[in-house]
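pls design
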């Protein structure tokens, strides 16, 4: 799933291509909105909110999209060929200069501007947004001290924009095992502040880096490097799906459910596991 900085950059590109211009093409390739026609309306702006995108059109319409695991927005000149198959397109918006195509979008919603809170109102402070508030994010994380820090960082209700890659990298840089309970993380404010700085540094880059090295294969400390040597101590990186507190709660309430957790990666020497 794209991280918050990737979504932020996507919003900037959509904004530059579409805003201030009238739509000459409005094609929604999802059954619910197949008959919607927004041609002739001017795109006001596109903004990101965590991992959500809001494209505001005309006086009152907002297009809400979420990339989920596989989605992406492409920007093309009107005569340029598309880089993905047409059958994967979910939304096509075009003006005289540019065509924006949303491929494999996980979420497509049309709503009135006043109803945007129904899709993004639950989110915590946005690490790349004007509402960023370090203290508020730390307070939200601290409300569940028994939750693993890795799981808590992924909960967009605490803070919006961290995905699996930044979760792993920030925990490594803080020297904290991702399964450590939030209440046992002594440097929580520093950890969250570092996450915000990393997203800020990477938000205008096509290639993300947490090591400061943009060369291929050198960009990350631990993410997706299971079995490879730690860049600091040479201990092999470990990886696993750690137990999720929320899944345990779901199972206790409704019986077995599919595991919602995602892979964790850590260095067992630099990030020793918490005592069991």
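designed seq:
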């Amino acid at each position: 799933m794209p991280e918050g900085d990737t979504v932020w950059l996507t919003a900037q590109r959509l904004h530059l291509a579409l805003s201030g211009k009238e739509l000459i093409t409005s094609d929604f390739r999802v059954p619910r909105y197949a008959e919607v026609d927004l041609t002739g309306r001017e795109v006001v702006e596109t903004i990101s909110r965590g991992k959500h995108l809001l494209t505001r059109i005309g006086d009152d319409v907002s297009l809400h999209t979420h990339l989920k695991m596989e989605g992406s927005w492409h920007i093309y000149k009107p005569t340029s060929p598309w880089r993905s198959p047409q059958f994967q397109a979910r939304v096509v918006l075009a003006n005289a200069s540019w065509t924006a195509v949303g491929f494999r979008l996980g979420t497509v919603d049309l709503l009135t501007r006043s109803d945007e809170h129904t899709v993004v109102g639950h989110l915590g402070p946005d690490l790349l947004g004007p509402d960023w508030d370090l203290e508020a994010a730390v307070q939200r994380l601290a409300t569940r001290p028994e939750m693993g820090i890795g799981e808590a960082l992924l909960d967009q209700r605490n803070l919006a924009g961290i995905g699996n890659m930044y979760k792993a990298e920030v925990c490594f840089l803080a020297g904290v095992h991702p399964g450590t309970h939030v209440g046992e993380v002594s440097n929580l404010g520093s950890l969250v502040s570092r996450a915000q700085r990393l997203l800020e540094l990477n938000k205008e880059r096509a290639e993300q880096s947490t090591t400061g090295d943009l060369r291929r294969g050198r960009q990350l400390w631990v993410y997706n490097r299971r079995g490879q040597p730690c860049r600091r101590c040479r201990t092999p990186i470990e990886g696993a799906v750690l137990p999720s507190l929320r899944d345990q709660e779901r199972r206790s309430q409704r019986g077995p459910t599919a595991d919602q957790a995602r892979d964790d990666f850590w260095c067992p020497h630099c990030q020793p596991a918490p005592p069991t």
